[in-house]
Amino acid sequence: MKITFVKKILADGSPCPKCNDVQQKLESSGQIDRIDETLIADERDPESVGMQLAAQYEVNRAPFFIVEREGQDTEIFTVYLKFVKDVLDQKTEEADELSEIMSNEDLDFL
User: Fold this and answer.
1) E strand intervals along the chain
2) How many domains does the chain have?
């Protein structure tokens, strides 16, 4: 399995706050060790690898995860807790997942 983490750089050059939050969660939990590649979707450069992948997979939220498993279709996750539960097989609380999905304040659209 290959896991790619795509995070965003805003037009003013600053990192996306939600992306930083997810990065911190990955690092503090040790889950970062399961990430094979981290790429940048740079709003200032529509040709950046992350922006190209967002267009290819029709993703409009950052951060997102691309999960490639041998013999299976590529999966895209835009919700960190769903990714943790479905890919990393770690327990999450349903209420936390719903909160993350429904919360618009932290969303960062590509």
Assistant:
1) 2-9, 37-42, 61-62, 64-68, 75-77, 108-109
2) 1
